[in-house]
């Protein structure tokens, strides 16, 4: 099981574990993209890692949504909408890499993930964690 840095934990082990796996996939893309994105083999490796990120993101979001629905989280639909926006952004970045339409995709992904991480996980996910953990008390 992958471990998440405690400062990013929302206190729900199942979600934190999935998020840690997501970070591993992002790191793999970053490693390839940072040094080899302009080479054909590097571009293919980056595209593969990003496609894995798209698949895992959809799976992780679906799992998270089932989890918070099971706890009757009142803001589920708003949370789901944010997930759809994130999925669309990551899918667009994947299309850019496949089409080789830009050389800044790695930078865009890094910036997006940094902003998303801070806003979505540390704010939005923290809201449902407080709700769920507060009900468990």
Explain the overall architecture:
By secondary structure, the protein is mostly helical. The chain has one domain: Hemerythrin-like (Four Helix Bundle (Hemerythrin (Met), subunit A)). Helices cover 81% and strands 0% of the residues. It has four helices and no strands. It starts with 12 loop residues before the first helix and ends with a helix.
Key attributes of the depicted protein:
137 residues, mainly alpha, single chain, Four Helix Bundle (Hemerythrin (Met), subunit A)
**Highest CATH level, the class:** Mainly Alpha
Instruction: Name the CATH superfamily assignment.
Output: Hemerythrin-like
Number of strands: 0
Amount of beta strand: under 5%
Q: How much is the radius of gyration in Å?
A: 16 Å
CATH-defined fold name? Four Helix Bundle (Hemerythrin (Met), subunit A)
The count of helical stretches stands at 4
Sketch the topology as an H/E string, one letter per element.
Answer: HHHH
Profile the largest sheet: none
Give the termini separation: 26 Å
Could you say which overall geometry the principal axes of the C-alpha atoms support? elongated
Helix residue percentage? over 70%
Q: Which second-level CATH architecture applies?
A: Up-down Bundle
Poorly predicted parts = none
| Arithmetic mean pLDDT | 81
What structural class do the secondary elements suggest? Answer: mainly alpha
């Amino acid at each position: 099981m992958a471990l998440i840095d405690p400062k990013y934990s929302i206190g729900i082990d199942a979600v934190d574990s999935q998020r840690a796996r997501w970070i591993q996939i992002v790191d793999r893309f970053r490693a390839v993209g940072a040094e080899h994105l302009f080479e054909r083999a590097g571009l293919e490796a980056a595209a593969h890692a990003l496609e894995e990120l798209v698949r895992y993101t959809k799976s992780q979001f679906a799992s998270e949504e089932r989890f918070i629905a099971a706890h009757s989280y009142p803001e589920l639909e708003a949370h789901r909408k944010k997930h759809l926006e994130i999925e669309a952004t990551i899918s667009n970045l994947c299309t850019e890499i496949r089409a080789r339409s830009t050389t800044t995709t790695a930078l865009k992904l890094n910036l997006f993930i940094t902003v998303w991480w801070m806003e979505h996980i540390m704010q939005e996910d923290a809201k449902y964690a407080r709700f769920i953990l507060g009900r468990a008390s």
